[in-house]
Amino acid sequence: MTIDQLYNIYRQYPSVQTDTRKLKTGDIFFALKGPNFNGNEFASAALDAGSAYAVVDDPNLAGTNTRIIVVDDVLTTLQQLAKHHRQQFNIPFIAITGSNGKTTTKELVHAVLTSGYRTYTTQGNLNNHIGIPLTILSVKADAEMAVIEMGANHLHEIASYCEYTLPTHGIITNCGKAHLEGFGSIEGVRKGKGELYDHLRANNGTAFVMWDYDYLHTMSKGIPAIIKYGTTDTADIQGVVKQSEPFLSLAMIKGAHIPFINSQLVGAYNLPNILAAIAVGTYFQLSAAKIKTAIEAYAPSNSRSQLIEKDGNKFILDAYNANPTSMRAAIENFAAIQANNKVLMLGGMAELGAESLQEHEGIINLIKQHPWKAVILVGGDFLQIDHPFIKMANSTEAAAWFKGQQFSDTYFLIKGSRSMQMERVLG
């Protein structure tokens, strides 16, 4: 079956699913394979559950049911179908990647654009080789904008996503010390993330660039259109931190007719994320009032820069992920908060490769520079280093310790890599 033929079926049944547990009647089931599962084995069950068709790559299933479509490779077919669907649109497709802040930036950009346009975006963090094509295929015919988040942990990954996303606009939030195990070095991170700029450069695209970061100046050279945002006078959209406790407020200086914005985000490190959304909204001619209202109404969730008040204590829950760059920013922001009793509960950082021990030691040295009521370091390479702080094997142990304490009027920072599941501390 050709992609054109499959697309005609998709147009009749425009809902795609790869997980039989989430199937709805009329979905097209794509039987993906992985190291520990084979979706082909669930094709019949998917059809029995109401799936309109099942796309498989097991030739033994050919002819067993007229609603089973056999292809050479299910994942490749899913991506090709997504590209074909993407090519039906002549609207902005905005791709967002970066080491830190890409999901928050995506959510803010979506919130702003939704105030004036029919906008579709990545749900949660479905930002990989499966999630991105599924996101593209969720874009309906009435779309006026699409915002696509792209995650990556090795070279050539962003380039492959661009082949079927075909972004017209792009944002690299930053390039930090994340996924060093896959990228090899900070230079590798920049090269990998820079594949988005390479696509925009080659396809007459537009980049929204955080102009405070000199390395993004270099990386973005040659892109036909660059909209600069940041805190410097040379930025087109210029804003600065007005207040960062408990929530971030910013004052706009240039480029957007908004005197100030009071966000529901914790931490000055979220300033670039908000400025990116302002730059996008301004570029697409949304009113200052709509931009301000959208950003101020956005409330973070899913353990991302959340401020939670519970049992007389305050918690900054930023436990969705962590790397040395984001961990340092969170600690420094927390150290600057005016509070008498402050407790750090930090989980280990994953995917740092050969530099992992050194990076964890760097975080410990930073912690030593500030006074704390208590410091609890959980799992990962924090366990391999001698330090004067409390060690816990995992977040379950940390949660049990926390419940046994009698904290009151205390401020907590809870952060760690996704694998550490530090949100468990709060139950």
Description:
- With 427 residues, the protein is an alpha/beta fold.
- It has 3 domains: 3-72, MurE/MurF, N-terminal domain (Udp-n-acetylmuramoylalanyl-d-glutamate--2,6- Diaminopimelate Ligase, Chain: A, domain 1, 3-Layer(aba) Sandwich), CATH 3.40.1390; 89-297, UDP-N-acetylmuramoyl-L-alanine:D-glutamate ligase; 306-426, Mur ligase, C-terminal domain (Protein-Tyrosine Phosphatase, Chain A).
- The protein contains 15 helices and 21 strands.
- The strands form 4 sheets. It has a 9-stranded mixed sheet with strand order 8-9-7-10-11-12-13-14-15, sandwiched between helices. Strands 16-17-21-18-19-20 form a 6-stranded mixed sheet.
- The longest helix has 13 residues, at 74-86.
Domains, number = 3
Described by the principal axes of the CA atoms, the overall outline is globular
Write out the CATH superfamily name of the largest domain: Mur-like, catalytic domain
**Beta fraction:** 15-25%
Quick overview of this protein structure:
33% of the residues lie in helices and 21% in strands. It has helices at residues 3-12, 43-48, 74-86, 102-114, 131-137, 157-165, 180-183, 186-193, 195-202, 214-220, 271-283, 288-297, 324-336, 356-367, 395-403; strands spanning 16-17, 28-30, 33-34, 37-38, 53-56, 68-70, 93-97, 119-121, 145-149, 169-172, 206-210, 225-230, 237-243, 249-254, 260-262, 306-310, 313-318, 342-347, 374-378, 390-392, 411-415.
